[in-house]
Each structure stands twice: as C-alpha cells, then as structure tokens.
Amino acid sequence: MSNSSSDLFSQLRTRMVSMSRTSKIALMVTADLLALPACFLIAMILRGGDLQLAMNYGPASYVLVAVVTIAAFSISNLYRAVIRFIDQRLLSLTGAALAFAILCVYVVLILVDEPRFPRSALAIYWFVVFSYVVTSRIGLRNLLRVRDGRSSKSDAVAVYGAGDAGARLVQAMRHSDEYRPVCFFDDKRALNERTIAGLRVFNTARLAEIVAAQSIRTIVIALPSVSAERLRDITQRLGQGGVPTKILSRVVDLSDDRPPASGAIRELKFEDLLGRPPVPPRLDLFARCVRGKNVLVTGAGGSIGGELCRQIVTLTPGELHLLDHSEYALYTVRQELTTRFPALTIHAHLGSVCNSDLIERILQEGKINTIYHAAAYKHVPLVETNIVEGLRNNVVGAQVVASAAAKHRVQTCVLISSDKAVRPTNIMGASKRIAELIFQAAAVRHGAHTTFCMVRFGNVLGSSGSVIPLFQRQITRGGPLTITHPEVSRYFMLIAEAAQLVIQAGAMAKGGDVFVLDMGEPVKIVDLARTMIAMSGLTERSLQNPRGDIEVQFVGLFPGEKLHEELLTDGTVFPSEHPRIMRMKESALRPSVLETCITCLMMACETHERGTIESMVKAIVAEYVPTAPDLEPPLVADVADKPRPSLIKKFVPFRI
Q1: SS3 257
Q2: What are phi and psi of 220, to 5 degrees?
C-alpha cells in the first residue's frame, strides 16, 4: 500500500470510528435499504431464471421486503451492536430473526392466497440476505480493525502454550491495540510446525532465532493450571529469548470478539513461582485478638511489623500502638495507616524494646490487650559480626516484653520467631531460640492470665532483608547476581499471608505454644535468581552463553549461614484449627534456670569475648553449633543432588 493510499485509508477509518452512534445507525440502515432490494432481486432471478419475470412484481414489493427485513434486524439488535466487536452469537440471532420474519411473510401469502408470488423465493432470499449480512458486517469489522503499520503501537507477541487457552488468547489479542500475536511456542513435539488459530507453532529450541526473526517484544505464558515448579522451568527457558515474560491470569476474561480484559495478561509475580494458592483467613480466628482491643506491635516500622499493622487496621481494633527505634520507619508506617484509616486512634512510640520503662508505660497507659512482638535484628551476617548488640536487642527485648506483658496482664502476647531458630548455626538464630525459651518460661509462670505463644516461619517475599530486592538492585546495575552457594535453598512466603497467619495463630494459642507456618517447598536461590533474570527479559551470562546480559556469581557461604533452613526440631507436631498452621511441643528450660543463664549471657556480653559469649549461648541453646563459612563454593557440576529437609518430620493426630 502506497503512503497516499495508507493515509487516505487511515483518515477514512478515523472518520468512521469518530462518527456519532446515531449517524452510524443511520448509515447502516441506509446501506441496507439499498442492498436488501438487490438481494431480493437476486433471489427472484435465481428462482425464476429470468430478469424480466423478476421485474414484473413492481418496486413496492421490493421496498416492503426490505422494510420487513430491517425490522427483523432491529429486533435482533444488529444496529445496536458495535461493529468492531460483532460476534457469531449476534449473527446467529440475526439469522434467526430474519427466518422468523420470512416465515411470517410466507404465512401471510398463504392466508391472502397470492398464487402469483413464488413462495420458494423467500427461502432463497434468506440465504442471500444472510450471506450479505455476514459478508458486510464481518468485512466492515475487519476493515475497522486494520491498523496503519506506521502508527500502530502494538507489540509483536508470542504465546507459550498452543492449547485451548493459548488459542483463545490469540483470538482475543487480535481485537487489541496493545498486542499483535505472531506465533506460538510449545514443547510438545506433536505441535511443532503446526498452525493453530492461524499462527505457526515453534519449539522452544528455536526460541532465540524466532524472537529475533519476528521482532517479538513479549512472550505470554498461556497455561492456566501450570504448577509452580514447571512455571519456574518455563520462565528460565523463555528467558533465553531475552524478552520480558508475562502470564495469562484469567481464562474466563477471554472472548473471541473482544480484547483481553484488564488484568487478564499481567506481569509474572514471585508468588506465581511459589505454588502456594492463597488460603483466605478464617474470620473468627483473624479478628479474635484484635477486634475492639488495644493492640501493640513492636518493630512496627519493619517489613513484618508493618504488614501486621496493615492487617490489624482492617479488623477495627480499639487502638493501635506502634513501637520502633527507627524514626523514619515509624513515621512512614504511621502516615500510611492514618491516611487509610483516619478515624482509627493510632499512637506512634519512638524507642527500643529493651527500654523496660517505655514498654511498661505503653502497656499501662494504653491498656494493651494484645502484643505482637516483631522487633528484632534479623540480618544474619550483620548480627554475626555484631553479636553483642544482636543478643542484647533480641534476647533482652523479648525478656522485657514478656515481663511487662505478664505484669500488666496483657491477654495475648505473640513472639514473631524465625526458621533460623531451629538448630541454629548463627547468633541471630540462637538469639531467636532464646527468645522462644523466654516466652515458654513466661507461659509457665504467668499463663493463668496471659497467653504467650511463638510463631515460627521462614523468609517473606519483599521484606527489607530478602534476597529478592537485592537481586532486583543487582539486575538494575547490570549484575552480577551474587549467591553464596549453588545449592543454598530457602523457604518463602508472601508477607501478607505470613502476617495473616501470625494473627490467626495467636488466636489459637493456649499458652507456651510454638506455631509453625506451612511454608511449602524450599526454593533454590540459584533457580530464583535465574528466574528473575528471565522475568526481566534478560539472559544469563555463562560459559555456554558468553554474550548474555547478567552473570551469576557464587561468593561462598556467610559465617553462620546454612545451606538449607529448617522449620521443625525433633519435637512432636500436631495439627491446628488452620490448615496452614502447625502446633509443636518443644522442650523448654525451667524459668529459674533460664533467668540465671540469661544473666550470665549478658555478663559475657560485657566482656566482648566471642568465645565466652558463644559458650554461654550454647549453654542455653544446646543445639547451637557455630559453623565456619564455606568461602570456596563448589562448582555447580560438582554438587551432588542432596535431599532437602522435609517440612513435616513427624505428625501426630489429635487424640480424643
């Protein structure tokens, strides 16, 4: 098409689209008034075989048939339809309405006993008119959908998955100004080089070649029921094309005659790769310790503490008290909450959980009913090189909160613990296990009026210390992505789900409970890194692909870091009222013994001698075994596949 013809076509299309609705209907009715008599003439000629015979019936009969036909079109809503989105259903309805109108005319001819009129011509007329309607409307629809190649902003898109969902997605994309489907990718050999929904299907072995040849800008995964493990594998393989990957989220939003609904195609999220379908919170558990109560959240400016606050404000507490030692973090979360819930009374307290006077004043003046103790130092390498401050903050903080909660008869006190407290190999994990022992001892001493419990879980996606923000920053800088070891794995959970489960676990506590959240299966960090590279539309630089974008480097395990985290000790595991929460029976120290040991530990901290401090930590947490860092990680090819720990080791059902 020449430039002048293209410009003329674009102007014509723009004028047609910009016409008012009334003008469009008038134009269609006028066109039909001219075309329908011609259709009737064709039907009469086909019936009689003679033009002169067809002309003997006079113009009145032709006009009358056209008016009856337009009335049938109007009844079927043909003129109200948007031509660009006209579909098979509307055309079928129009055909049925036309058949009914012709049947009525046929009955009238029988009643008036008009022998001259060839009634069989009416059946021929139906076929001619229906062919005209389909041809004219579909042709006009395609005409309006054609986009000028120079001005189109649509991107060339490939669809992974040449199944039913993929075919439906392609049909919907053809009505979109945003997407222009050009081909399928699928790993099924039976589909290779076949044509589905008008597009060729290619194997992913030719991914890079086809992406370059077709100038593909995006690949959309159209596999609605794909498992998380397979989705991670697919995302990594599609990353070889060096273009961003999206996913079809809702097949129900697809229609053959309309563009994909908003949100039907979206960016891949990390939760898609976890394989954990969300479980809505049980409202009876969710609100039990919050609704109408005065709640204190320590560490409210942190990732977990902040999310706890966001969940709590939705449950209409009496008052919400925030405590954090970071001025900026406290200000930020308070501003967010007061903006969303201006009617809720929110108090922001700046200070440390180790300040017993501050904690007691908050509990006394605020008449606190529920405490969520999330304040802690959690970054393993930092705590490992600052063991004195790490122990003081995590251990003394837990001791102060538990003591004040018991003294002021707080109803429920929940400790946010960590999977690193299980058989700890670092000071951070050991300090969290000591905090658990403090809460267990408090439950023994003061369980009559205060319910103490602990909730243990692993990493949460998007938290300040999570590996995901680190990888995102490294990808933005062009790499490399640094990983401590090729076999290191971690449990992951959505931060909102973790906060909801913590609140529900606190509602189920009977005193001294250790709750463990079901974190699903552990994820290898190297797989996560490669998936993030692929999600960014980049490729990994390696020996096999030296021209890739981002390199993955293994830097060696940090001091105290484990290859695989655990959630359970050798204690007995019981089910709870919630399918994602398990209850554990853990061993504990006698309160008097624990108190003496903690006093000795704090005295050891005064010496700043690491050996003395570690000895005292081991005296309290017998499972604590400090490990030396593995500075030279083995090559990926040299690492044997070792079984990773299962989440549930021993399960004991309820006994009646």
Answers
A1: coil
A2: -110, 125
The closest alpha carbon to 496, from 460, 523, 464, belongs to 460
Predicted local distance difference test score (pLDDT) of residue 332: 95
- Smallest CA-to-CA distance from 466 within 547, 511, 532, 555 is with 532
Q: What is the 3-state secondary structure (H, E, C) of 506-575?
A: HHHCCCCEEEEECCCCCEEHHHHHHHHHHHCCCCEECCCCCCCCEEEEECCCCCCCCCECCCCCCCEEEE
Residue 80: φ, ψ to 5°:
-85, -15
Least confident range from 239-248, 355-364, 471-480, 596-605: namely 239-248
* DSSP symbols for 387-400: HHHHHIIIIIHHHH
**CB-CB contact of 329 with 303 (8 Å):** no
Structure-token pair, residue 469: 């923000």
Strand boundaries in 269-408, DSSP class E: 294-298, 319-324, 345-350, 370-373
Q: Do β-strands 581-585 and 572-575 pair in parallel, antiparallel, or remain unpaired?
A: antiparallel
> What does the mean pLDDT of the chain come to?
80
Q: Give the C-alpha distances (Å, rounded to integers) separating 325 from 115, 301, 333, 379, 417.
A: 100, 8, 13, 16, 19
Distance of CA 532 to the CA centre of its chain: 15
Place 149 in a pLDDT band, splitting at 50, 70 and 90: very low
Which DSSP symbol is given to 255? B
Using CA atoms of 350, 354, 360, 362 in order, give the dihedral in degrees to the nearest 10. 20
Count the neighbouring beta carbons within 10 Å of the beta carbon of residue 79: 15
Nearest to 493 by CA among 218, 277, 229, 224: 277
Q: Is the pLDDT of residue 246 over 70?
A: yes
Number of H helices, E strands in the chain: 22, 23
Residue 590 CA to its chain's centroid (Å): 45
Single out the residue of 113, 119, 28, 101 nearest to residue 64, CA to CA. Answer: 101
User: Which structure tokens are listed for 197?
Assistant: 């929904």
What is the per-residue burial (b if ≥16 Cβ within 10 Å, else e) of 104-125? ebeeebeeeeeeeebeebbebb
Q: Which residues are catalytic?
A: 420
Q: pTM for this one?
A: 0.67
The four Cα atoms 256, 262, 264, 267 give a dihedral, to 10 degrees, of: 140
CA torsion angle for 105, 107, 111, 112 (degrees, to 10)? Answer: 20
CA gap 531, 554 in Å, rounded:
16
